[in-house]
Design a protein that fits this description.
Elements (H helix, E strand, L loop, with lengths): L1 H11 L7 H10 L4 H21 L8 H14 L10 H9 L15 H15 L5 H17 L13 H11 L5 H20 L28 H12 L4 H14 L3 H5 L6 E2 L4 E5 L5 E5 L2 H13 L22 H14 L7 H15 L4 H8 L4 H4 L7 H7 L11
Antiparallel strand pairs: 1-2, 2-3
Helix pairs in contact: 1-3, 2-3, 6-7, 7-9, 11-13, 11-15, 15-16
Length: about 400
């Protein structure tokens, strides 16, 4: 009987058959290739036939039903077998009112998860931290909240300064100094927020000890003129050349961070006045002049390389549906180009930023000018580049004593 019902359902096409033409048209509109459209429509046909066999409608496509379908699909198909493959179809069905249930967002139920969620919102809204920084802070403090969970009333009872210090010491045992410092900063932020919100009776942030970090003796590693030429040659050979050249130029010439490049909007480019609006850390907004070479690369990408989509982000993915790039994607572009050019070393995107700062110093500028380009919050942040300004250091260095001279 099952096989007979399957044949009958296949001949009818199932409950989604009336949506297939519209689905194919939407995929074409957002830029999918003909082959991908065919693959997606075939997946939709399979799902439609399976729904008919099971006696289900589009309105029944919740998480459980989708999971059951994927189990069946994996038996006979070697591709398009994950929930991710169904995202375009389900999004389309919801957009046309086919009755597909909306995505259910899990709401934290236990007090510890609720506390972490509240802290996450505070970091994003009140402190204006970037999404990646919020995720980092949350991952750092989650073990503390697990170790000292709040009660049902949301209040943490009984935690002491000694326990906070012991927790931080235990967490730091096998970590590098940089990682310890990040964790300590996150924990201090959590404890200050908990005190402000009356989750703990006193401010315990002072119990998180200072982290001794070596200042380091190495000069920030900038790219040489030859390495910059090799990097640009490598970019010129990539399929996404116009986009990647423009992104790298913004980091290499203006010192933008990867996240700032990814967040750049078409509305942030003032072509008439020749400036670009940079939206940096903690909601800071700056205007930087657009060098001629950077402007030319941006124009080339916008005219001949950028997909024609309504999204206002400057840099989009090359594959449909051409979503805005994340900061991690910009970093990956820089890292891949450096690797293929044979340039080794950590911190791809930041290395380009270092190169921009060192270029200011090499051109006769000082630390103040370098800090202005990088939009540092204070001179202490730019002080690391003093080690790269050899000429300035030479003016304050004492001469080495001769054999007969006095120290």
């Amino acid at each position: 009987m099952k096989s007979m019902s399957w044949v009958a359902a296949a001949s009818r096409g199932g409950p989604l058959v009336g949506f297939l033409d519209g689905f194919a048209g939407e995929l074409e509109r957002v830029g999918y290739s003909p082959r991908t459209i065919e693959t997606q429509v075939n997946l939709a046909r399979h799902l439609s036939r399976w729904l008919a066999v099971e006696g289900l409608a589009a309105a029944d496509l919740d998480g459980g039903v989708i999971a059951r379908f994927l189990v069946v699909r994996r038996v006979t198909y070697s591709s398009m077998r994950s929930a991710l493959a169904l995202v375009p179809l389900l999004a389309f069905l919801r957009s046309v009112g086919a009755g597909v249930p909306p995505v259910v967002v899990a709401v934290p139920a236990d007090p510890a998860a609720l506390l972490v969620e509240r802290f996450s919102r505070y970091l994003a809204t009140e402190r204006g931290l970037a999404a990646a920084t919020v995720r980092s802070y949350v991952s750092q403090v989650s073990p503390f909240v697990t170790a000292f969970p709040p009660g049902q009333n949301g209040v943490v009872v009984g935690v002491t300064a000694r326990q906070v210090a012991d927790f931080q010491t235990a967490r730091s045992a096998d970590c590098r100094p940089g990682s310890v410092a990040v964790g300590a900063n996150a924990l201090r932020a959590l404890l200050r927020w908990m005190w402000r919100e009356r989750i703990v009776p006193e401010d315990l942030s002072g119990s998180v000890g200072a982290v001794c970090r070596p200042a380091g003796a190495t000069v920030p590693k900038a790219l040489s003129v030859g390495e910059v030429a090799e990097l640009r040659a490598e970019l010129a050979s990539e399929p996404e050349r116009l986009r990647n050249e423009a992104m790298v130029a913004l980091m290499l010439r203006l010192g933008l961070r990867a996240g700032e490049v990814a967040g750049l909007s078409l509305d942030d480019i003032g072509w008439r006045v020749g400036v670009i609006v940079v939206r940096g850390k903690r909601g800071r907004i700056d205007e930087l002049p657009i060098p001629v070479d950077v402007g030319e690369l941006l124009v080339a990408y916008l005219r001949d390389g950028r997909p024609d989509r309504p999204d206002r982000h400057v840099f989009l993915g090359v594959d449909a549906p051409h979503r805005a790039l994340a900061g991690s994607a910009v970093t990956s572009v820089a890292a891949r180009a450096l690797k293929h050019a044979g340039i080794v070393g950590p911190g791809a995107a930041h290395r380009l930023r270092h190169t921009a700062a060192c270029g200011v110093l090499a051109g006769g500028g000082g630390l103040i000018e370098a800090g202005q380009l990088l939009r540092h919050s204070g001179p202490q942040t730019t002080a690391i580049y003093a080690r790269a300004d050899i000429a300035a250091l030479a003016t304050i260095a004492r001469p080495w004593p001769t054999a007969g001279g006095a120290l």
